[in-house]
Design goal:
The complex is a heterodimer. Chain A has helices at about 50-55, 100-110, 115-125, 140-155, 170-190, 200-205, 225-230, 235-240, 350-355; strands at about 5-15, 20-35, 35-40, 65-70, 70, 85, 160-165, 190-195, 210-215, 215-220, 245-255, 260-265, 270-275, 285-290, 295, 315-325, 330-335, 340-350, 365-370, 375. Chain A is of the alpha+beta class. Chain B has one domain: MetI-like fold. Helices cover about 80% and strands about 0% of the residues of chain B. Chain B is globular and about 80 Å long. Classes of the chains: A alpha+beta, B mainly alpha.
Chain lengths: ~375, ~300
C-alpha cells in the first residue's frame, strides 16, 4: 500500500509544432504524498502547466507513467480521473448560476438533486461565500469567482486538487489574503494540492514541498527551506530570491562536503559543495544570499557570529562600499570585491548603528559563514 | 500686427472649410439612405394605393392586404392571388427544410473547424467562404448543370427520369446556407473559452454530456442566429431557385419575377412589403443574437 497520491514516472511530453518537435516535459519523476501541498514552480514555458494537464488527463504523455493513488492513468480520460482542476481564469460556466456550476460535477456523478443542492450550499460556506448561489458568475468579482471555482472542484472531494496559477488574475492584496486562506483550507480538507505558480514567494509561503522546473526539467524538489538555502543549480539559486554569484575555480574538494574556490582576484574561499556539482567541474560559481552577508568595519567588528562559531568557518574578504539603497525593512548595499566583482548585501534596519555608520566609498570587510555559501556548476 | 491679420484670414478660411466639410458629412448619409430606401418606400407606398395603376397615388387602402388575408382565410379566391399564396407556401416550405438541414450541417462543420485537428483544415476553412463570395449566377448555373448530370446518371442506372422540384431547390439552398451558418457559429465558438469544455470534462462530463450541457447552450445564440440568417436568405433567394426549380415549385420571388412580365399587381406590392418586413425582423433578431456576449450568455 503506497502512501503516495500522485506518482510521475519518467514523464516525457512532446508537442508537434511547425514540423518540429518541442519537448515540454523532459523526463520528470516525482512522488507526491497524500495530503501534501506541492508547488510546481518555474518561469512561463517551463512545462509546469503541461505537467499539471498531464495529471488532469487533458494531455497524454509521450512516454512515462502517471499513477494516482497507485492506479495507472493510461487510457483513463479526464472525466474518470479522481482529480479536479481549478483553472487560471476559473472557467466557470457563464450560462449557469453559481449553484448550478457547483452542482455540475455532482450531477455528473449521479448525485440526487436535493443532495447536490445541500452539498453546493455547504461548499459555498466552506469558501466563505454563502448566499450567492442564485447569481451568474459574471455578477461576481474576480476573487469571488475564484472561490466559486474552488468550491466547484472541492465539492467533488477529489483525491488531488490541481491548481493552475489560481491567484494569477487577482490583485496583490487579495492574492496575499487568498494565499493564507487557501493554505488554511488545504489543511482543513486534507486534500493533496498540486499548485502551479511562477511566483516564488507564493510557492515558498504556501507549499510543503516545491519542485522547480525549467525547460521541461524538474531541477530540484525539496522543502521551501531546502530550495531557498541549498539551491542545487545555478538556475534554482537565481530564480528563487536574490543571490550573489561569484565565479571562480574549484581548487580542492574536501571530504567534509566543502571545497576551496579561487576567485578571479586570487583570494580563496571555502564553501559547501552542491550535491549536483559535476565530479570533474573546475569552473564553478559560488552562490550566497544577500542577507547572509555581513559587513564589518573597525567600528563594527563581526560580532554577529561571535561566541559559538569558530572564526575559521567564516569567509572574509576586503570590499569597497559602492552604493546603498534604503528599502524599508532592509538596507541594500552594493560592495565591490576584487576587480569588477560586485556583491549585494542586505542588512536589517534594526541594527541602526551598523547600517548608519556605513558610508559610500568606505573600505570595509564582507564576511559570511562558509555553510551559507554553495559551490554550483557555472 | 500684420502677422496676426494674416493668421486671422487663414483661420477664417479654415473655419469655412470645416463648416463645408461637416455639412457634406451630414448630407452624405442622407443621400446614401435615400438611394437605399426610396425604391422600397415607393413599393410600400403603392401597396397601400387604391388604384391598380402605379402611375398615381389615388388614395389609401388596405384592400390588397385584405385580399391576401381573405385568401388565407379561404373566404374569397382570386385566381392570381391563390397562385401567389401557393408560391409563398412553397417559399416557407423550402426555407424551413433548407434551414433545418443547413443549420445542423453548418453547426457541425463549425465545430469540426474550431475543435478538430486534421490535415488541410486551412484549405477547407477557406473553401467554406466560397459560396459567400462567388457570384450567385455562377453557383446557380453550376447547380443546374450538376443536377442535370446527376439525373442523367440516375436515368442511366435505374432507367427512371428525375425532374427538378423541391428536392433540388432545397439541396441548392442548403449548399449556400451551410456556409453562412458555419461562419456565424464559428464566430460564436471563437468567442467561447475552450477551457470551459475542459472544465466540464474535469468535473466528470463525458464528451457527449459536455457538448449538450456546456458547448451547445453557449453556442445556441449563434446557431439560432445562423438559422434565422439561412431562413431569410432562403426566403429571399431568386437566382439559384430560378435555375433549380421545376414545374409547380416556384417560390415567391420566382413567381413575382414571372408576374412582372405581365403586370405588377398591387397584391405583389403588398406581399413584397410583407416579405420585406418579415426578412427585416428575422435579420434583426439574428443580429441581436450574434451581439449577445458569449461570456454572459
Amino acid at each position: 500500500m503506497t502512501s503516495y497520491d500522485v506518482e510521475l514516472k519518467d514523464i516525457v511530453k512532446d508537442f508537434e509544432s511547425g514540423g518540429g518537435r518541442v519537448r515540454a516535459v523532459d523526463h520528470v519523476s516525482v512522488d507526491i504524498a497524500d495530503g501534501e501541498f506541492f508547488a510546481l514552480l518555474g518561469p512561463s514555458g517551463c512545462g509546469k502547466t503541461t505537467t499539471l494537464r498531464l495529471i488532469a488527463g487533458f494531455e497524454q504523455p509521450t512516454a512515462g507513467h502517471i499513477l494516482i493513488r497507485g492506479r495507472a492513468m493510461e487510457g483513463i480520460p479526464a472525466y474518470h480521473r479522481p482529480v479536479n482542476t481549478v483553472f487560471q481564469d476559473y472557467a466557470l460556466f457563464p450560462h449557469l448560476t453559481v449553484e448550478q456550476n457547483i452542482m455540475f460535477g455532482l450531477q455528473m456523478e449521479g448525485v440526487h438533486k436535493r443532495e447536490a443542492v445541500k452539498l453546493a450550499g455547504e461548499a459555498l460556506e466552506m469558501v466563505r461565500l454563502p448566499g450567492v448561489g442564485e447569481r451568474k458568475p459574471h455578477q461576481l468579482s474576480g476573487g469571488q469567482q475564484q472561490r466559486v471555482a474552488l468550491a466547484r472542484s472541492l465539492v467533488k472531494q477529489p483525491a488531488v486538487l490541481l491548481l493552475d496559477e489560481p491567484l494569477g488574475a487577482l490583485d496583490l492584496k487579495l492574492r496575499k489574503n487568498m494565499q493564507y486562506e487557501l493554505k488554511a483550507l488545504q489543511r482543513d480538507v486534507g486534500i493533496t494540492f498540486i499548485y502551479v505558480t511562477h511566483d516564488q514567494e507564493e510557492a515558498i509561503t504556501m507549499a510543503d514541498r516545491i519542485a522547480v522546473m525549467n525547460e521541461g526539467k524538474m531541477l530540484q524538489v525539496g522543502t521551501p527551506k531546502q530550495i531557498y538555502e541549498h539551491p542545487e543549480t545555478h538556475f534554482v539559486a537565481d530564480f528563487i530570491g536574490e543571490t550573489n554569484f561569484i565565479a571562480g575555480a574549484l581548487t580542492e574538494r574536501g571530504g567534509d562536503g566543502y571545497g576551496s574556490v579561487r576567485l578571479q582576484d586570487g583570494s580563496v574561499i571555502r564553501a559547501q559543495l552542491a550535491d549536483t556539482l559535476g565530479s570533474a567541474a573546475s569552473a564553478v560559481t559560488v552562490a550566497i544570499r544577500p542577507e547572509r552577508i555581513g559587513i564589518s568595519t573597525p567600528l563594527n567588528p563581526p560580532t554577529a557570529f561571535g561566541g559559538g562559531v569558530d572564526s575559521s568557518e567564516i569567509a572574509m574578504l576586503d570590499a569597497l562600499l559602492v552604493d546603498s539603497q534604503y528599502i524599508g525593512t532592509d538596507t541594500r548595499f552594493t560592495l565591490r570585491i576584487g576587480d569588477g566583482i560586485e556583491l549585494v548585501a542586505r542588512l536589517q534596519n534594526i541594527d541602526d548603528l551598523a547600517v548608519n555608520t556605513l558610508r559610500i566609498g568606505q573600505k570595509v570587510k564582507v564576511f559570511w559563514q562558509e555553510s551559507s555559501a554553495t559551490v554550483l556548476d557555472r | 500686427m500684420r502677422q496676426s491679420l494674416i493668421n486671422e484670414g487663414a483661420m477664417e478660411r479654415n473655419r469655412v472649410i470645416r463648416r463645408l466639410g461637416s455639412a457634406g458629412l451630414w448630407l452624405n448619409p442622407i443621400f446614401a439612405y435615400f438611394f437605399l430606401w426610396a425604391p422600397i418606400l415607393i413599393l410600400v407606398l403603392f401597396s397601400f394605393n387604391e388604384s391598380r395603376s402605379v402611375a398615381s397615388f389615388t388614395g389609401f387602402t388596405l384592400k390588397w392586404y385584405n385580399n391576401i388575408l381573405n385568401n388565407v382565410m379561404g373566404a374569397e379566391r382570386a385566381f392570381s392571388t391563390e397562385i401567389m399564396l401557393n408560391a409563398f407556401r412553397n417559399s416557407l416550405f423550402v426555407g424551413t427544410v433548407a434551414t433545418a438541414i443547413s443549420t445542423v450541417l453548418g453547426t457541425m462543420i463549425a465545430l469540426a473547424m474550431a475543435r478538430g485537428r486534421f490535415r488541410g483544415k486551412r484549405l477547407l476553412d477557406g473553401l467554406l467562404f466560397l459560396p459567400v463570395v462567388i457570384p450567385e449566377i455562377t453557383q446557380a448555373i453550376s447547380l443546374a448543370i450538376f443536377f442535370k448530370v446527376v439525373f442523367d446518371w440516375v436515368a442511366l442506372i435505374s432507367g427512371e427520369r428525375m425532374f427538378p422540384g423541391f428536392h433540388t431547390i432545397i439541396a441548392a439552398h442548403v449548399t449556400f446556407n451551410i456556409s453562412y451558418v458555419a461562419i456565424v457559429v464559428r464566430a460564436r465558438l471563437a468567442d467561447m473559452n475552450p477551457q470551459l469544455e475542459e472544465a466540464a470534462n474535469d468535473l466528470g462530463a463525458n464528451p457527449w454530456q459536455t457538448f449538450w450541457r456546456v458547448t451547445f447552450p453557449l453556442i445556441l445564440p449563434g446557431v439560432i442566429s445562423g438559422a434565422l440568417l439561412a431562413f431569410t436568405l432562403s426566403l429571399d433567394d431568386f437566382v439559384i431557385t430560378f435555375f433549380t426549380s421545376g414545374v409547380g415549385t416556384s417560390t415567391l420571388p420566382v413567381f413575382v419575377y414571372g408576374l412582372l412580365k405581365l403586370t405588377v399587381t398591387p397584391e405583389v406590392n403588398a406581399i413584397s412589403t410583407i416579405m420585406m418586413v418579415l426578412s427585416t425582423i428575422l435579420i434583426g433578431i439574428s443580429l441581436a443574437m450574434q451581439g449577445r456576449n458569449a461570456s454572459r450568455a
